[in-house]
């Protein structure tokens, strides 16, 4: 668990730094677009220049808010990652702890983010009806739940086939089942398309790519740090090694 929390903390910190550099410019452009359209028909119930002040300033949102949210997300995912690792290690293939951690991080990125993201990609400010945020959140979380359940079903199918087929065949069967389930769910789930016709396509693209890569960085760093630390712990060594000073070093 300590390895997972440490890995999640590192992943959240690096992801926040990446988001600050790459995602914030697109958010600023989206906010500028929203401000240009304040008071336009269908855009706001308030006249231009009379919108309520936000509860949290833009500076706090892009600074302390971004890092706080990323660190909390990283710690949460790191704790869950450690539990999943403990559950799966030695039960899905005979590989080393580091290899298991890296594969698990890649699978988590795919199942928890990439597949739901392909159906319901992230949107910057000024995109979407604020009154429908609960509806959008519900369909996104539903897609996440379907992806997780499909992954569990795929693992069970793979485990059931291992005694009657080769490991490669069982793995392909599990992947095929997962792909079929999430593809069917993606087709059946309602479509949410609230992007204004005149919204800058480049801004939307930059924001979604930054969101995608930010998650990739989070899970990549989390998996890498966990792989390095868990390998040391499972070998009976401490996570960190502190060198003790010798008389020669002290005299120097």
Summarize this structure briefly:
The chain has helices spanning 2-22, 24-36, 58-88, 97-119, 133-161, 167-188, 201-234, 247-251. It has 252 residues and is mostly helical.
How would the blueprint of this fold be written?
Blueprint lengths: L1 H21 L1 H13 L21 H31 L8 H23 L13 H29 L5 H22 L12 H34 L12 H5 L1
Please provide a written account of the structure.
The protein has 252 residues and is an all-alpha fold. It has one domain (2-36, 64-241). Helix content is 71%, strand content 0%. The chain contains 8 helices and no strands. The protein has helices spanning 2-22, 24-36, 58-88, 97-119, 133-161, 167-188, 201-234, 247-251. The longest helix has 34 residues, at 201-234. The relative contact order is 0.17. The model is unreliable at 40-51 (pLDDT under 50).
